[in-house]
Amino acid sequence: MDPYLRVDDLRVSFSTTDGVVRAVDGVSFSVERGRTLGVVGESGSGKSVTSLAVLGLHDPRRATVTGEITLGGRQLVGRTEAELRRLRGQDMAMIFQDPLSALHPYYPVGRQVAEAYRVHHPRAGRAETRRRVVEMLDRVGIPQPERRYDQYPHEFSGGMRQRAMIAMALVNDPDLLIADEPTTALDVTVQAQILDLLADLQAEFGTAIVLITHDLGVVSQVADEVLVMYAGRAVEQGSVERVLRRPQHPYTWGLLSSVPSLHGDADADLNPIPGNPPSLIDVPAGCAFHPRCRYVGHTGGRCRTELPELRPAGTAGHRLACHLSGEERSRCYAEDVARVGVAQ
Amino acid sequence: MLRFLVKRILSAVLTLFAVTVLTFLMFFALPRDPVTGMCPKNCNPERLERVRQELGLRDPLVSQYAGYMKGIVTGRDLGSAQGGRCDAPCLGWSYVNNEAVTDTMARVLPVTLSIVIPAAILWLLLGVGLGMLSALRRGTWLDRVAIGFSLAGASMQLYFVGAVLLLVFVYTLRWLPVPGYTSLFDDPVRWASGLVLAWVSLAFLFSAIYARLFRAQMLETLSEDFVRTARAKGLTRTRVYGRHALRAAITPVVTVAGLDVGAALGGTVITETTFGIRGLGRTAVDAVRAGDLPTIMATVLIAAVFVVLANVLVDLLYAAIDPRVRLG
């Protein structure tokens, strides 16, 4: 089966007065219908820039987007705004991190969902649109959808707002849904409900989902594939089982061990990755992660000078960009686990 | 919504009451004897004393205030020297103009309204339009032209702009008659042609501020998440900017417009003087010069009413724009 979304060597850069920001620097991935790709990384790793590039939402006057984005066989990069507009909300839709700021504060929620429907169904009448929207609000689990239709976002709870956002995104039954940190702003219990809802809707409609998050717990719950991004590049990608059970990149180890464990000692210190993500104007030479990598000494300086290629690592589909040899990685990983105990 | 409305109107009434009290007190706190101003020459002490009696200046302050307020609400009887019966809303008698103040106001108020209201419509459309254009075309020549235009407007004085317009359109090209006021109901064409230069100069000066204000607000709004959502839905740019962003960015414009229009309705002295039209502004200035206290009092009161009304209107508009305000 051909993947519904295929992204090939995507590069997004912004010219600023301080220099060129390479927010995404050669990222490739694909998602099939009915499958979920989790994109993980810290803030500034290029996750959101990637998703906005897929929807064509970058301002062409400020951002340069190159590479290939193929959606259901159609190449998107270089299309006109009018062509992209017709695909947005219809074939590909997006939900955002903070549903309160993502909904317009001055319009009733139902009308905002209705607007998404009518723009792609210009011949739909008022009654039909309303019926469709109420049905959708009901489908995403908003109680009393008829009454809720006319309420404003500030009258909704956080979870209900995100449900409304999901209703808005799915009202046209798109084949691709990009969810940019959809649960970050929500309570943990509500998070689980929203993730369940997304999984249900995916099973029902066969939507391809790109789930952007920094939460590996979320990824392990819902994703089929994982793409780990660092400083605008993919450092590790593969199936969830492979990447989370047998992580190969020191950065992925760091992400995994920085997840606080429910079963461990509640007073135990967190294990953050030391240092901060690099500035995207001045990315470190060689492997961008080397200044924060514990094992940089194992490669005789290669990490500081030579950019590691993304190469197959072991089993089919698992890919990795790291200079450590397979043997060294096993040793270092054992060391890492012994040091912090990976939360798995 | 209804509760909000009632609350707002009640507080407006209270404000107006406070304004009348304060104005009235100021009227009496003035250093000069109100009577000498009303009777500039040939006044013997007996006549002055009679005027004081007629005006009730010998009565206690409270009963004078009560009389004045009663005049506004129900009308009152003034002495024969003051035109006798004075119907509501009675604002007193002007010895300087030898006329009931209410009649003066009835004559000059339509003039000021005719100047300010069309000018305000013009400056709002122009300001918001220019601001929108330059926000959406930020950094292009269009943006720079719009900003240059608004800088020019903000730096110029009305009497200069007005004089240039008069020179060009009235005295050189002769496209327009010499400015003046004709009632809209008598002859709409002459009404407009006599006032259009005043509208244009006011709009030029005021729209400048609005263009800058709206541009800044629009740029801020365009980076909001809900604008991104609107675009992600596949809405056209026109709809994203013209509806979603415009509605969110317009609130500060409404606030400032309320203040400006309210203040302008209280009198546009410079505009009236530049174009030789007698409205509320020049009436007020002349009254101050002549020490014509009943007229001063009336102009202050009317100006205050406009400011308060404009504020109520702003609040109602706010509630119409932003549903969250209606809760308050």
Description:
The complex is a heterodimer of chains A (344) and B (328). With 344 residues, chain A is α/β, with parallel strands linked by helices. Chain A contains 13 helices and twelve strands. In chain A, a hairpin with a 2-residue loop joins strand 1 and strand 2. In chain A, helix 4 crosses helix 5 and helix 4 (109-120) runs parallel beside helix 7 (158-170). The relative contact order of chain A is 0.14. With 328 residues, chain B is mainly α. Chain B has two domains: 2-102, no CATH class; 104-327, MetI-like fold (Orthogonal Bundle), CATH 1.10.3720. A two-stranded antiparallel sheet of chain B has the order 1-2. The longest helix of chain B has 36 residues, at 101-136. Chain B is globular. Chain B starts with a helix and ends in a 7-residue tail after the last helix. Chains A and B meet through helix 2 and helix 4 of A and helix 9 and helix 10 of B.
What is the topology?
The complex is a heterodimer of chains A (344) and B (328).
Chain A: E1 5-16, E2 19-31, E3 36-40, H1 47-55, E4 63-71, E5 74-75, H2 81-87, E6 92-95, H3 99-102, H4 109-120, H5 126-139, H6 145-148, H7 158-170, E7 176-180, H8 188-205, E8 208-213, H9 216-222, E9 225-230, E10 233-239, H10 240-245, H11 250-257, H12 302-305, E11 311-312, E12 319-320, H13 326-340
Parallel strand pairs in A: 3-8, 3-9, 6-7, 7-8
Antiparallel strand pairs in A: 1-2, 1-4, 4-5, 9-10, 10-12, 11-12
Helix pairs in contact in A: 4-5, 4-7, 5-7, 7-8
Chain B: H1 2-29, H2 34-38, H3 45-55, H4 61-74, E1 76-77, E2 85-86, E3 93-94, E4 99-100, H5 101-136, H6 141-155, H7 158-172, H8 188-222, H9 225-232, H10 237-249, H11 251-265, H12 269-275, H13 280-290, H14 293-321
Antiparallel strand pairs in B: 1-2, 3-4
